[in-house]
Design a protein that fits this description.
Layout: H1 3-24, E1 29-39, E2 43-44, E3 47-48, E4 50-53, E5 63-71, H2 80-88, E6 93-96, H3 97-100, H4 107-132, E7 139-146, E8 161-165, E9 168-169, H5 173-181, E10 189-195, E11 198-204, E12 207-209, E13 212-214, E14 217-223, E15 228-231, H6 243-253, E16 264-267, E17 270-271, E18 277-278, H7 283-292, E19 297-301, H8 305-308, E20 317-321, H9 324-336
Parallel strand pairs: 5-16, 16-19, 19-20
Antiparallel strand pairs: 1-5, 1-6, 2-3, 4-15, 7-14, 8-9, 8-10, 10-11, 12-13, 17-18
Helix pairs in contact: 4-6
């Protein structure tokens, strides 16, 4: 045996070890795959997912399914084996890690943020649905959480109702954020709050937190609901993207007749207090999940339509919605006539067809 042949034979197992090591090496990517879908009008372990107290409810045929995405966790690794599998699967997506997560993100922090977003989206969904039905729903911005060792720590408390900032009356978290942002950098923000029925004032100077000047507290919109709505959603599911579907399910529960015409309607989209439907991530994976669960219609946020247009949707209709009112109108038209001309996601302008 020549020296070259011997070297070649020795190199084969070495190359194999190197390939195995390379395939298992963690890579800076995140994989999105289709997650579960769930019928919000249905039951979980024999209990209705949505329950309403204080108003007459109706339970009809049909389904309203919210959709989810499975994503690589912040502290989990992705190797080349997994990337190749995701690349081959047309329903999966691969993103650079820095687009999805920050350098210091943890699983625990992501779980907490997702849970907060879920609860907030549910509150907003109830408010939007009840408003659409003609109820008066008073609301106010309040402190949700005070960050430790921040300028607001020791001053503000969770549950403080925000009344005015720098003399400007605030009625929403957006107005409160704008008022704080308008404070000159070298001056304190003057906050008036209500705590346990007492009006209090605080003078707090912002400090740099995560690269921005902030007071160091998180806000949420708090509502006085005329009826009580409860959600039996798996606590492991987080994020704000089911807001639209929650609103529609509440609306359907409080109105006679089926909004879906007895069919399966899936969808996604955040919901704002004014009823606007916002874009979400993972639209292709959510469409794939709904397709696999035999949905007839998929409600797509208007801002996601360009991306959704080319998603493999099978026989599902991709219906474009920009507001809660548009979604209600579209579903009512569909329930009356499944062949009705609904606003659909169409080929983006400038994209050539085949």
């Amino acid at each position: 045996m020549t020296q070259r042949m011997l070297a070649g034979l020795l190199a084969v197992p070495l190359l194999g070890v190197l390939w195995v090591g390379a395939l298992r090496e963690p890579l800076p990517y995140v994989i999105y795959t289709p997650g579960i879908t769930a019928d919000i009008l249905g039951t979980e372990n024999g209990t209705e997912i949505i329950t309403v107290e204080g108003a007459k409810t109706y339970h009809d045929d049909g389904q309203l399914r919210f959709t989810t995405v499975y994503a690589t966790r912040a502290e989990s690794d992705v190797n080349l084996f997994q990337l190749l599998g995701a690349w081959i699967d047309p329903d999966d997506a691969i993103y650079p890690r820095e687009i999805i997560y920050g350098p210091d993100d943890t699983d625990e922090a992501q779980q907490e943020e997702g849970a907060f977003q879920m609860v907030t989206s549910q509150d907003t969904a109830v408010a939007v649905a009840l408003t659409e039905l003609g109820y008066d729903v008073p609301s106010r911005p309040e402190v949700h959480r005070v960050l430790p060792d921040s300028p607001a720590d020791g001053e503000l408390e969770a549950g403080d109702e925000l009344l005015a900032i720098n003399g400007i009356r605030v009625a929403t978290i957006e107005e409160a954020g704008q008022a704080v942002g308008g404070t000159p950098d070298d001056e304190p923000a003057e906050l008036e709050v209500r705590r346990d029925g007492e009006r209090l004032t605080f003078s707090i100077t912002r400090a740099e937190i995560d690269g921005q000047l902030r007071l160091g507290f998180e806000m949420r919109q708090s509502y006085d609901f005329p009826v009580e709505v409860k959600f039996g959603i798996d606590p492991d599911i987080g994020g704000p993207s089911a807001g639209l579907m929650f609103s529609l399910a509440i609306y359907d529960t409080l109105t006679e007749g089926s909004m879906t015409g007895g069919d399966v309607v899936a969808g996604t989209g955040t919901i704002s207090p004014d009823g606007a439907v916002g874009p979400i991530g993972g639209i292709d994976q959510k469409i794939a999940g709904a397709r696999e669960d035999d949905a007839d219609v998929f409600l797509v946020p208007a801002a996601n339509c360009d991306d959704a247009y080319e998603s493999p949707n099978g026989d599902m209709e991709l219906v474009r919605v920009a507001t809660m009112s548009e979604a209600v109108d579209a579903l009512e038209a569909y329930a009356d006539d499944p062949d009705a001309g609904l606003p659909r996601c169409e080929e983006p302008t400038g994209v050539a067809g085949e």
